[in-house]
Every structure is written in structure tokens, then in C-alpha cells.
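As a warm-up, study this chain.
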Amino acid sequence: MRSILQTAFLALALTTACSKPNEAALVEAGDPKKPATKAAPQSTPPTTDLVTMRDPVENAYTLGMPKGWHNRTYSARVFDIHSMVTTSVSPNGSVLIFSGDPSIPQYWNPASASPVLYDIARTHPRMKIEPFVPATEYFPGYVKRKFGNLPSFKLISTEADAQGEQKLRKKFADAGIRVEATIANVAFSYTDGDKPMNALIIGSTSDSGPFWIVTVTGIATSGDPKAYIPMIEAMGRTHQMNPDWQAEQNRKHQERMAQIQEFGRQMTAQHHRNMGAIQQSAQRHQQRMQAIWAQGDASMKSYYDRMASGEAQHRNFLNYINEENTVVGSNGKTFQVDSSYQRYFMHKRDRTYVGGDTGMDLDKLRSLGLNPNDYEEVKITK
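Now compare it with the structure written out below.
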């Protein structure tokens, strides 16, 4: 049996290549009759001139991304669940494409879940035990939760892609995996700094029996989203897994399958250990960001320069994708932080931070063994 990880990567690689969005829905999303308060920049045309980027967090893969665009790709992990997240913004900010979502859970079907899996799911933030949901039912709610707070958000349409589903099922079968795959194309509109934007989400839910996988790819542009699908397909064809990394993941998967009872105990114990630390999601986010900074890629530096300058274009959209908040300190500098908290305290001499609920304050830092004089509260930007 193939591992969950293999199935997830295959689903992500195949979905956009099999999906063809409903043109009528996309035309409606960019309705020229709707008055705009500000003219949108002319859309950057799609390109297949790509540069190879490496996952800076786990060295799990390489991926071709558009040359000259503001690119970011990384591994996101919670315990044993790994996902790949990619975002790319065109030079003039008129187009954003993304693939992957670090918040989407791994789902197990209730009929296949053992008592140990139920125990793990109770403490695992990215593991859910729920019946399979077809893509046309799953993604409208997903889009509203993920992007519904964008200004002037409007859900335009949800369409199944029967032809794409048939192709995706065949590709799974050719890879030796029996999967029931569904695809949905969800179109919506919003404004970014009073500029009208059109967005298309291409999502799949793939049921293997014991578990099911959700993958998502999206396009947001001042122009026509469907024009960028060939570009995304070209990027997908460049995706290469690191064989050494994949072999290690497969080895760990086999160990977990052979020792699931012990794994369940370890997972629960690890969860409680992490809960005793400052904050587990903040720590994971900081480790990931340190790896990204260490990569030193010029495109990546440009990406963060855009965010640090306070440029609002696509910032909220990017934050929703990456599960981040942008915060600003008393010196006017902005930082990216994990979005799990209501208040944030940034170390004055480095980029580490502590997050908490509304009751978090400097006295709480002292109770965590930290020196409150080393931190200042930073505010979430809107």
C-alpha cells in the first residue's frame, strides 16, 4: 500500500493538469459591467520561463517557478503530516498563484479509524476523522473560511469537472493507486486596495478508502485566471522529489504502520511536551522562517522586502494562504508571524516572537522564564 504522503503528492501534481475551469463562471467573475473604484494594473502575462527553487525547510523537493516573480515555496509540517506550500506574485502585483495550504487536515474515514487513531486525532491539530466529502461540497465552505474576509468578497460559482475527474482517476490507476477523485472549480471576486480581482480555486478531494486527501491550487488576478493554468501546469511538470528525503519518509511511514500503538502514545506525549513550551505553532513557524531566510535567494529577499515595506497588494491573500499575520513594531518594521494568536511580543534583537491569547502580557512572559525587557508588543496590521 502506498503511503499517505505519496498519495498526497501525486494528487497535488495531477489535479491542475486534469482540471479545466468553467469559462462562463470566469467571465462572470470579471464582469466588465461592474464599476471599479480604481483601475487595476494590467495583468502580467503568463510565462513558462522558470527558475529552479529548492525547498529550504526539509530539502524535500525542487520546483520551477516563474523567473522574475516574487516566489516562495516551503515544507510545512505538524508532527508526521507534511505539506508543500507555494506562492508566486508577478512583478507588478497583478497576479498571484498558489498551491497547497498548511492548514488543510489529513482526513481518515471513520470506518477505517482505529481507537488509537481517534486518540491521535484528539491531540493532532492537522488530523481529522470525518467521512469523505466530494470537492463540490468541500470547497465552497473552504473558500468562504479562507478568503471570505477579503474586501468585497463574492462567491461566484462552483462547478464540478467531470472530464478532469475522469483523467485524474485514470492517472491514479496508472500509478497503481485505487482512488475515488473529485474536482471542483470555485470562482470568486474581491478587491485589493480598491482594485477588482478575480480568483479561481481548483480543488480536489481524493478518497483511497482508509483516508482521503485534499489538494488546492489557486489563481488571483486583475485579468482572467484561466490564462495562467498552462503556466501552473508547466510548473507542475518541473516538480521533483528528493529521493533521499522520500526514502526516509517512506521508512518512517512503515515504522509507524508497524508500531501504530507506540506511535499513538508518542504522539500524545509529544503534544503535551509541546503544549508545555512557549507555543508549538509559533515555534514551527519560526523554524520554517529561519530556514527560508537562510536560503538567501534573491527572489525570496524581494518577496520579504515587499511585505516589510508595508505594500498591501496581495498581502492579506498571501497571509490567508500561509496562515500568517503581518505585525508592526514601534519602529515601523513589519514581520510575518503564525496566525494562531491574538497578541504578539517580538524580541528586540532578533526575529523570534511569543504569541498568546488576549490575556497574554509581559508578566506572562516572565512566568515562561523570559525577560520582559527583551520584548515589545507588536500590533497586527489590517
